[in-house]
C-alpha cells in the first residue's frame, strides 16, 4: 500500500460518514447508554483525541471502547490485541466488516475512530472532528460529575479558528511533509508546519492553554500531534528542523498536558512507533522500528503553573483509567 503521492503534494481524503449520534436522534441514532462502541487504535492521533475526550468526560460506563492493534494492511484495522483476534463485543476481526455491514460498496478509507452500533454491528460515523464535539455537547446527560467544558459556547468561535489552523498546518501538516512525493511539495509542507508551530509557541508563551484558561477541544487536538512528534514525525516524516524537545514553549506545554490525567495515560509510544514505521513501507521499507527516543523527559517539571489557568475549570480530574483500558506497562513514559 502506497502513501507517498508521486505527483507531489499529499491531499487527505476527507470524505467521512457524516451521520451523527445526537440527543434527539435526528439522524436515526439517538444517544443511548450501552448502544455504541467507540473503535480506536492508540497509535492513531485522530483516535487518540476520542480516547482522551471520552476519558475526560467520564463516558466509559455508557460508551464502550474497542482497541485495534497498531498496524493494518490495505484492507482494514484489525482486532489482533483481543483473544482470537476478534473484538469481544462486535465479534469481528476487521473494522472493515462494520463498514461493509452498513455500506456494502463502501469505497473510502476504513478509519479510526469509528462509532459502531452494537445492536446492528454497523458503523455509524467515522467523522472524527465532529465526533469529539458531539461527545461534549450531545452526551452531556451522561457526563461524569466534574466533567470539564471542552467546547464552551462562549469560546467556540475562537476554538474553531484555532482548530482549523492546527488541523491544516500541524495535524495534517506533518503528513503533508511525510507523504510528499517531490522536493518542492516537501519543502512547502515543511515551511508551513514550522511557521505554524512558531506561531503556536508565541501564543502559548503567555498563556497556559490555547483558548481561555482551561483545557478545551483545541488542546486535545494539538496534543496528539505533539505527543508523536519526536517518536515519529521528526525522523519518519522528515519534520526535522527541531525536535519537540528543542522547542521550549511547546515542549513545556506538551509536558503539562501529558502530566494531566487523561492525556499521558492514554498515550502508547510503542503502538505509535510500530504503526508509523511498519505500516508506511514506502517510506520505511525495512520496517525497522527505532528504539528511541528516551521518554523520561515527559515526566520532568514543566513550570507552566506560573501562567495560571485551571486545567478542568470548575470541574475535577477524571479517575484513573479502568484496568482493561490502561496503556500496557512499558508502553508509556518511564516513571
UniProtKB/TrEMBL annotation:
* Top-rank taxon, per record: Bacteria
The record's Pfam families line, in alphabetical order, gives: GST_C_2, GST_N_2
- Ranges for the GST C-terminal domain? 152-279
Q: Where is this region: Disordered?
A: 293-335
Q: Where is the composition biased (Low complexity)?
A: 326-335
Please name the PROSITE patterns in this protein's record.
GST_CTER
Spell out the protein name for this chain.
Glutathione S-transferase C-terminal domain-containing protein
